[in-house]
Amino acid sequence: DAGITQSPRYKITETGRQVTLMCHQTWSHSYMFWYRQDLGHGLRLIYYSAAADITDKGEVPDGYVVSRSKTENFPLTLESATRSQTSVYFCASSDRGNTEAFFGQGTRLTVV
Amino acid sequence: GENVEQHPSTLSVQEGDSAVIKCTYSDSASNYFPWYKQELGKRPQLIIDIRSNVGEKKDQRIAVTLNKTAKHFSLHITETQPEDSAVYFCAASLNTDKLIFGTGTRLQVFP
């Protein structure tokens, strides 16, 4: 199916474990973004990518790692999960950084 | 870096009334200002956007205004309906760079 998809939709992990959230888009959009959504903080940018092999930090990058070896995929890895990383994570893509961003359905991550 | 502030955090209106949400941005070079609507449990979706070379844009019951001098932009919803109830986010983008969002406004429209 065309669009942008995230997996898994729900994830529970333990403190200290590594976890990877996946994001895949079929539009060949150049830009991809990772946001986290927390009550009272809105959508905060974690990392973004302007093209394959190009990534840059957003507002809250600490504790996260990204890679983009292929245009269509933009995985987000929590190297050692902490309770403060419990959140809803949204991936998004856009043709350029200043055009409509399309969001995935989100991943609800709980760190216990 | 870019910073976007959004007010109010919650807004309650009677059906048929107007609703206004305001945002300010910090980087005067920002040139793209979208608004997203997020219904409960759903993903954010674009409802309207404006670029820095335009002062106002309308789409049926929604409109966005931009004041570049004051570095603020606003979303106006007229004749509100219960289905307008959602969280609304403003955002700002510098050139082709990252998109930074405000903290959101929860709009409740009462019948």
Task: Write up what this structure looks like.
- The complex is a heterodimer of chains A (about 110) and B (about 110).
- Chain A is an all-beta fold.
- Chain A contains no helices and eleven strands.
- In chain A, strands 2, 4, 5, 6, 9, 10 and 11 form a seven-stranded mixed sheet that branches. In chain A, strands 1-3-8-7 form a four-stranded antiparallel sheet, with no helix packed on it.
- Chain A is globular, with a radius of gyration of 13 Å.
- The mean pLDDT of chain A is about 95.
- Chain B has about 110 residues and is mostly beta strands.
- Chain B contains no helices and eleven strands.
- Chain B has strands at about 5, 10-15, 20-25, 30-40, 45-50, 55-60, 60-65, 70-75, 85-95, 100, 105-110.
- In chain B, strands 2, 4, 5, 9, 10 and 11 form a six-stranded mixed sheet that branches.
- The interface of A and B includes residues 96 and 100 of A.
Write the layout of secondary structure elements.
The complex is a heterodimer of chains A (112) and B (111).
Chain A: E1 4-7, E2 10-13, E3 19-25, E4 31-38, E5 42-51, E6 54-57, E7 64-66, E8 76-78, E9 87-94, E10 102-103, E11 107-111
Parallel strand pairs in A: 2-11
Antiparallel strand pairs in A: 1-3, 3-8, 4-5, 4-9, 5-6, 7-8, 9-10, 9-11
Chain B: E1 4-7, E2 10-14, E3 19-25, E4 30-38, E5 45-51, E6 56-59, E7 62-67, E8 72-77, E9 86-94, E10 99-101, E11 105-110
Parallel strand pairs in B: 2-11
Antiparallel strand pairs in B: 1-3, 3-8, 4-5, 4-9, 6-7, 7-8, 9-10, 9-11
Strand content of chain B: over 45%
Largest protein interface, residues of each chain: A-B, 27 and 24 residues
Q: Please, what is the average pLDDT of chain B?
A: 94
Number of strands of chain A: 11
**Main sheet characteristics of chain B:** 6 strands, mixed
Helix content of chain A: under 10%
Nearest-integer average pLDDT of chain A: 95
Tally the helices of chain A.
0
Which stretches of chain A are poorly predicted, pLDDT < 50 over at least 5 residues? none
Morphology call of chain A: globular
Estimate what percentage of residues of chain A fall within beta strands.
Answer: over 45%
Q: Quaternary state, please?
A: heterodimer
Helix count of chain B equals 0
Q: Ends of chain B: how far apart?
A: 41 Å
Structural class given helices, strands, pairing of chain B?
mainly beta
**Care to count the β-strands of chain B?**
11
Shape category of chain B: globular
